[in-house]
Design goal:
Mean pLDDT: 94
CATH superfamily of the largest domain: RNA-binding S4 domain
CATH class of the largest domain: Alpha Beta
Shape: globular
CATH topology of the largest domain: Structural Genomics Hypothetical 15.5 Kd Protein In mrcA-pckA Intergenic Region, Chain A
Order of helices and strands: HEHEEHEHEEHEEEHHEEEEE
Number of domains: 3
CATH architecture of the largest domain: Roll
Structural class: alpha+beta
Strand content: 25-35%
Length: 249
């Protein structure tokens, strides 16, 4: 699978060199983004940008091209759709899986859908621009909750992603210890996630359980969530590191 993904990236970069116009992928998941980072040194040179619709998005499109190279600027073809219950009073408590399932039931491939940010009042969906009108018209129910969709002309005010600060005590600041303490796992269970390819640091697959995170890096753990590493706040009386992270919630 990764070989096929590398081949697609190689073909895309070569096509850009020939055509010299902006080229876009659909949304790339963490595994695809990690593959891209790994094979970039071997790909033909081309200016590129990664963007998911807003700062903090995990799933991102790849754009080849720049204003300097192409002579003009072309924005990412990404739309944001707000999904809200028609009646908040009778709405179920919906989670990410509920919204994703309803969207997939409309017949869309996952790569056409970016991040889904769930809030108490509904959810915000980033998607390929061309499918946004259809979603706005056709998505009328999530589980048993009747919903109303609207394509936004601009993002909502304030932070789209919410973070919750948490401090954990670590004997040594290692990625496996951080994952274990934050998600309340045994050390061996946390280490297994690395071996299974479920841990990513800034979009790159990380199998090094002893990796020391750097301030600002985002650790994504498939099936558990994401955190931004802040750093060591202080040392305890026993010499342990009081380590701060920001959980995306």
């Amino acid at each position: 699978m990764e070989d096929a993904q590398e081949k697609r990236f190689d073909e895309l970069f070569r096509r850009y060199q020939v055509q010299g116009i902006y080229l876009f992928t659909n949304f790339l998941d963490l595994a695809a983004l990690s593959t891209l980072q790994r094979c970039l040194p071997r790909l033909p040179r081309a200016p590129y940008t990664l963007f998911g619709g807003a700062e903090g998005c995990e799933r991102k499109m790849l754009r080849l091209g720049s204003e300097e190279d192409c002579g003009y600027e072309e924005p990412f073809p990404i739309a944001c759709v707000r999904i809200a219950p028609v009646s908040a009073k009778f709405a179920e408590k919906l989670i990410h899986r509920d919204f994703l399932g309803a969207l997939m039931n409309l017949g869309f491939e996952r790569e056409l859908l970016g991040d889904i940010i769930v809030r108490e009042e509904g959810a915000f969906l980033f998607c390929v621009e061309r499918i946004a009108p259809y979603i706005a018209q056709s998505l009328i129910q999530v589980r048993r909750t009747t919903v109303r969709c609207s394509q936004l002309k601009e993002l909502p005010q304030g932070d789209l992603f919410h973070v919750e600060r948490r401090v954990v005590q670590l004997s040594s600041v290692r990625a496996d210890a951080l994952v274990a303490h934050v998600y309340k796992l045994s050390r061996s269970d946390a280490q297994a996630l690395f071996a299974q390819g479920r841990v990513f640091v800034d979009g790159r697959a990380c199998q090094d359980t002893g990796y020391t995170p750097k301030a600002g890096e985002i650790l994504s753990v498939r099936g558990f969530g994401r955190m931004r590493y802040v750093g060591v706040d202080s040392l305890s009386k026993k010499g342990k590191s009081n380590t701060a992270v920001e959980l995306f919630v």
